[in-house]
Every structure is written in C-alpha cells, then in structure tokens.
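Predict structure. Chain length: 208.
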Amino acid sequence: MVNTKDAPRSVVKRLPVYLRILDNLIRRDVDIISSSELSEETGFTAEQIRKDLAYFGAFGTRGKGYNTSFLRDKILSIIGLDKLTNVIVIGAGHLGIALSRYTITKNPYVKIVGIFDNDPKVVGGNILGVPIYHVDEMEKVTKDNDVKAAIIAVPAEYAQAAVDDAIRSGVKVFLNFAPTKLDVPEHVFIHNADLSIELQSIIYYAST
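Prediction complete.
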C-alpha cells in the first residue's frame, strides 16, 4: 500500500465515483458487490477498479467481492470525508448560488459554512440557511470554522484576488469555476472546472 497522497490524480478523481455508487448500493440494501458489478455501475473496467483500490489496500475477498459499507467507509477515510468537511463559496452570483444549493442539498460529506460576496444587495442574506458574508469577513469565518477548501465562483477578473484572500485565511485547496488561470503557492492545490470549455469540447461529438 502506498501513501494515500501519492496515488495518481486520475485514481483520486475516480474515488468519488465509487463513493456515489456505493452510497446508492447501500440505500438499495446491497451488502456485497463484485468488481465486475461495480464495472457495470461505473463504466470503468473491473481491472481498473481493482487496480485503483489496490493503491490503498486490500478491501475485497477473492471470490466474493467487496462489502459495500466497509468499502464506502474506507474510501471516505482515504479521501478525508470520514468527518464533515467545512468549505466556503466565494461568489454569490447565479453560478455561486447554483453551486451552493447543489452542494447543500446533494453532498452530505461537506458543509458550506459561508458564502462571500461584496455586493451589498446580497450580503446579509442566505442560501438555504447558509449566511452570505461580505468578503471582508472571510478570514474570521474561515479560521473560526477551520476551513481548508473553497469553491471559486466569481468573474475571472476577481478570481485571483479572491484566491489570494482565501489563502491568507488558511484555505489550501480550491475548486475554481472562474475561466482564468490562477497563480497559487506550491503547497496549495487548485482544480479548474471551466464550464465553457467542457461544453465546447462535447460539441465535437455532435459534429461528427
């Protein structure tokens, strides 16, 4: 078994897919599942699934498969979701609101503790009970809640300043929806999710 932080990024990106499938299986009272059955559920090959999980240990029983609850708990621990993780959202525009609503209602493993903006029309409000703070309050809210992760949902021209503010407040990882490249220190991890590029890329398959 390797250090969980040494696993390839491609493997780490598949872990939440396995987690979602396992959550669904547990809700359907499925106790045991084989790698072949997981393959049918995920679209990944059974060999790929076994290889991915082998980075972190031996979780299955030969000839029987995986206990869904046990494997779900192990994956939660590997990712770091075995305890509720506090996050913030920076940007309370249309995208920020949509991302906040989806995360609050659909992601049981993270908790949005604050949404930040500088628009006086939205500051002081809330989204499904989560307060919208002025950006000037970010450092206090972030440190009070031990926040290490943030979602960036501001226009491109404001994104770098937003990330800089969050880093100074102790945030170490970012999911960035702003359509721009951001400069961060080596110890900070950032994943860019550009919706425009994703949409444009799938048009390729519509035009063949």
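Summary: The mean pLDDT is 91.
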